[in-house]
Amino acid sequence: MVLTNGIAAMNEVPKKVTVTEVGTRDGFQAEAQFIPTETKIRLINELIAAGVPRLEFSSFVSPRAIPQLADVVEVLEGVKRESGSTLAALVPNERGAARAAAAGVDEMVTFVSASESHNLKNVNRTIGESLKGFDEVARIASIDGVRVHGAIATAFGCPFEGDVPVASLERIARHYRDLGFVGISLGDTTGMATPLLVQRAVRHLRDTLPDLHVTLHFHNTRGVGLANVMAGLNEGIDGYEASFAGIGGCPFAPGATGNICTEDLVYLLHEMGIETGIDLERLCAIARDVETVVGRTLPGQLMKAGHRLQLHALEEVATAEG
Ligand code: COA
Ligand code: ZN
Question: Whose CA is nearest to atom 3 of ligand 1?
Fold first, then answer.
């Protein structure tokens, strides 16, 4: 495959991809209404039953900052965990790590923005202060043997500062690598990524930190979310985060809208012959359930159109008369 600037792909497209569902975190944090705890538990259990291998199910953040996720402990207690799906949760600081370890998460996800102004808005710390706090997060996690994954928000552009230099990504990624984190994700918080920016960031990190496992988190704010996934696949990236029915968005970033949609992503991957282990029909049923839960039409497309080979009876459609 070739991208628009004519650079041929350097990596094989992966045969298997790990899809992380972030709908109950990135999605529900942006909802004006509080989604009841039992509804969150039901949806998470259905996602696990549909074969979703990893879920970023909630956040151990301040309940004053994100009241929608204040029930993170109760949600985790209600989830059936025998299936082997990884249950990950965001932690912004040491306090979050201690709470997450006590609750028994499989994985903590630290997060810091690549731009100072968004990090200050989001967690009230400079980038340097956030990174320093993660040393303690790593220590707390290691006591309980909990894996830590590091997320970088506003990785492809900041709504306050504009373009983000790849050196800013490298600085944070290097810190995460040095702390022994299992991988990092580049988050496109407000949908500013484009395929060439994805290619540039991934290649820079591969050149400078070749052992680091990099995954991608896109929002479809400007309609190029799945095009960005194609750019990532072209670079051999085998992990993507997405939100059921395409809901989502950061409350501390102007203009933030939905994540790429999980069912649409899984459809694309399956049609490319890439394995996910996910039952797509069950996923579409969950997405329709999410529309009912939030009480409005959501951006997901496959749940409305059905699979391309879901054919229709001829007599369903009127014949045009000229
Ligand atoms: N979990 C629960 N409570 C926490 C906490 C955590 N991880 N971190 C801090 N707090 C509590 C403190 O105990 C304190 O409570 P008190 O006033 O009752 O004593 C209060 O929050 C303020 O603590 P402080 O350390 O001064 O935090 P802050 O006001 O500077 O806020 C964050 C920092 C990170 C806690 C807050 O900005 C936050 O939770 N942001 C979340 C952002 C987010 O999730 N964005 C979307 C994802 S991209
Ligand atoms: Zn996001």
Answer: 62
The ligand 1 site (C-beta within 6 Å) comprises 29, 59-62, 65-66, 92-93, 95-96, 99, 111, 122-124, 153, 250, 252
Residue 217 to residues 40, 220, 228, Cα–Cα distance (Å): 21, 10, 10
pLDDT, mean of residues 246-259: 86
Our mutation pick for probing the ligand 1 site, out of 62, 73, 131, counting the most ligand atoms within 8 A of Cβ, is 62
- Rounded to whole angstroms, the Cα distance separating 260 from 250 reads 14
User: Which has the closest alpha carbon to 305: 257, 262, 244, 263?
Assistant: 263
Mean pLDDT of 161-168: 97
pLDDT tens digits for range 26-82: 999 999 999 999 999 999 999 999 999 999 999 999 999 999 999 999 999 999 998
Alpha-helical regions (H) of the chain = 37-49, 72-78, 94-103, 116-123, 127-144, 166-178, 195-208, 225-234, 262-271, 280-294, 302-305
